[in-house]
Amino acid sequence: MQVSYVSEATPGRPNEDFVAAGPGWVVLLDGATAPAGVDSGCAHDPAWLVRRLGGQIAARMAMEDGKPLPDLVAEAIKVTGEAHTGTCDLENPDSPSATVSLLRRRGGAVEWFVLADSPIVLDVGEVRVIRDDRVDRLPSYTLEAVRKARNSPGGFWVASTKPEAAYEGLTGEVPVAGLRRAAVLSDGASRLVERFGRLDWDGLLRVLDEEGPRELVRRTRVAEESETFARGKRHDDATAVLVRF
Predict the structure, then answer these.
(1) DSSP assignment of the chain, as one string?
(2) Average pLDDT, the chain
(3) What digits encode the pLDDT tens for the residues 7-25?
(4) Judging by beta carbons within 10 Å of its beta carbon (0-12, 13-18, 19+), is residue 181 exposed, middle or buried?
(5) What is the pLDDT of residues 160-201, one digit of tens each?
(6) How far apart are CA 129 and CA 132, in angstroms?
(7) What does the angle CA 172 – CA 106 – CA 49 come to, to the nearest 5 degrees?
(8) What percent of the chain clears pLDDT 70, i.e. is strictly above it?
(9) Residue-level pLDDT at 178
(10) Is the pLDDT of residue 62 over 80?
(11) What Å distances lie between residue 155 and 19, 32, 64, 149, CA to CA?
(12) Could you give the angle at the alpha carbon of 214 between the alpha carbons of 4 and 185, nearest 5°?
């Protein structure tokens, strides 16, 4: 595996994404920005969470012991929670949270894990997109409705304070043979496809491969600035990882 990536914060704000890579693996987390006025019950912000949790996952990936990916994520959530249980209310449903997307090569296969909406895009001769879209199918997006749906059956699942959320992630594998390249993206880097419609997934992979992750983020910033009606956040942290095989 050859891995290259860029992670760029929302202008003027701390980066709430996290990315790490090693021989044969990639870890990407995207922290959920807290809505204004919501009490998370936690002394820490999403940037703190993604660095602690992402570091715990990366350390376990680096051990290369073959443990199933959901087990690694569950362990990391548990250990991260223990690091601040004495100062924070981990029962608060608005506790800081993050997506988790992982790639790992083991022998002749590449395994993937996706929890929440940071997609993985695989080029296996055709483009295959792995994205957990449960948050897109909620019946309501009021603060109370999202609070009730978060890490609940029938709702959506994120990495926060409940280790069992790890077992709700999407998992699978593809043979290395025939896998040309892959992208691991925070939703701030998938916006050119999912929000702005300026590229399709094949085009996004082509930009990453031919021009690099920096160019994908540059194009994203141009699209954000030119949007005439901002739906949600005009800007977002953008992390783009290209993996060649």
Answers:
(1) -EEEEEEEPPTTS---EEEEEETTEEEEEEEPPPPTT---S-SS-HHHHHHHHHHHHHHHHHT-----HHHHHHHHHHHHHHTTTTTS-TT-TTS--EEEEEEEEETTEEEEEEESS--EEEESSSEEEE---GGGG-S--SHHHHHHHBTSTTSB--BSS-GGGGGGSEEEEEESTT--EEEEE-TTTSHHHHTS-SS-HHHHHHHHHHH-HHHHHHHHHHHHHH-SS--S-SS--EEEEEEE-
(2) 95
(3) 999 989 999 999 999 999 9
(4) middle
(5) 999 999 999 999 999 999 999 999 999 999 999 999 999 999
(6) 10
(7) 70
(8) 98
(9) 92
(10) yes
(11) 26, 16, 32, 4
(12) 65
Write out the two tokens for 20: 């790490």
The residue-averaged pLDDT of 86-108 equals: 97
Residue count of the chain, please give it: 245
What's the one-letter identity of residue 144? E
pTM: 0.95
**Bridge partners, 111 (sequence order):** 104, 173
CA pair distance 7, 232, nearest whole angstrom? 21
Q: What is the mean pLDDT of residues 33-59?
A: 95
Q: Provide the β-strand partners of residue 7.
A: 239
pLDDT tens readout for residues 209-240:
999 999 999 999 999 998 876 566 788 999 99
CA distance 135 to 191: 16
CA count, 13 A, side-chain hemisphere, 12 = 2
What angle do helix axes 46-62 and 69-82 make, rounded to 10 degrees? 130
Would the CA dihedral through 111, 130, 212, 29 be positive or negative? Answer: negative
Taking the C-alpha atoms of residue 96 and residue 84, their distance in angstroms, rounded to an integer, is 12
In this structure, the strands spanning 170-175 and 127-130 are unpaired
